[in-house]
Amino acid sequence: MPFSNRITKLFGIDYPIIQAGMIWASGWRLASAVSNAGGLGLIGSGSMYPDVLREHIHKCKSTTVRPFGVNVPLMYPDIDKHIQVILEEGVKIVFTSAGNPKTWTAVLKEKGITTVHVVSSSKFAKKAEEAGCDAVVAEGFEAGGHNGKEETTTMVLIPAVVNAVKIPVIAAGGIATGRQMLAAMIMGAEAVQMGSRFVASEEASSHIEFKKAVINTQEGDTILTMKQLTPVRVIKNDFYRQVQEAEWRGSTVDELKKLLGRARAKKGMFEGNLDEGELEIGQVSALLNDILPAGQIVKNVWSEFMNGLSSPLKML
Prior knowledge:
- With 316 residues, the chain is an alpha/beta fold.
- The chain has two domains: 6-205 and 287-315, Alpha-Beta Barrel (TIM Barrel); 216-284, no CATH class.
- Helices cover 41% and strands 15% of the residues.
- It is built from 14 helices and eleven strands.
- It has helices at residues 6-11, 28-36, 50-63, 79-88, 105-110, 122-131, 154-164, 178-186, 196-199, 208-216, 238-248, 253-260, 264-270, 294-310; strands at residues 17-19, 41-44, 68-73, 93-97, 114-119, 135-139, 145-146, 169-172, 191-194, 222-225, 232-235.
- The strands form two sheets. Strands 1-9-8-6-5-4-3-2 form an eight-stranded parallel sheet.
- The longest helix has 17 residues, at 294-310.
- The two termini are 25 Å apart.
């Protein structure tokens, strides 16, 4: 049964479940599968050249009539070209992250695009609201990939952001189950955004060896690292240990950038090099033990959420 609140109305979706736009995982297959299941699928543009983004938008349009969006990390190069593609292709929903929302929100809103920004603090949530965003994603310290410097956990961040802004809040970071979704919404969120759970899906474009590594991850196997550059949560592997040793030696930012080099994330998540690649994933990977169709993930999360909503004492 479809659910109605400010988020489902804003996006025109059945369920307040949003698939994060993860680099090297969120192509058109995953986005369209989530949207077809009643959630909101996002194409992750951060790992795409502009022409590749255009191709993914075309393919997503051809495989779903439901709403979908594009995630745009503002820290990546060629953002102006990505925005141009988005405008030319008539994308209706854009999530921005890793940058100042004032940079592009007005441009997107002028074209009638629903705009959401990812934040890691109440301070930046207010800035996103002031910039004209329609909603914010409040992403806690538990999340995979690039993370906030504040290291505020989702349990603390969600109610803080809900209290700070009037626009709808989408909870992210450490959420992969219906029970966690219920907890987030009890704290005032009106939807959840999930990344790690959808990385471990059949439609994710990430390498099968990376997907297997994700579902084999245990508690404590991920860590927030590279804080001198841009904090990122990764699975501990040989590459991470090289970074750790460099930081212990007091390496400079330039030395760390050289160690990071180019295409580390592609090497790990897309090409499946589990030793030398950067393996971005959230803490909640410790709760994952299967690779499922994206539509089944949406169904399972929603079913568990509704069961908990109707019988909260059973959750104890």
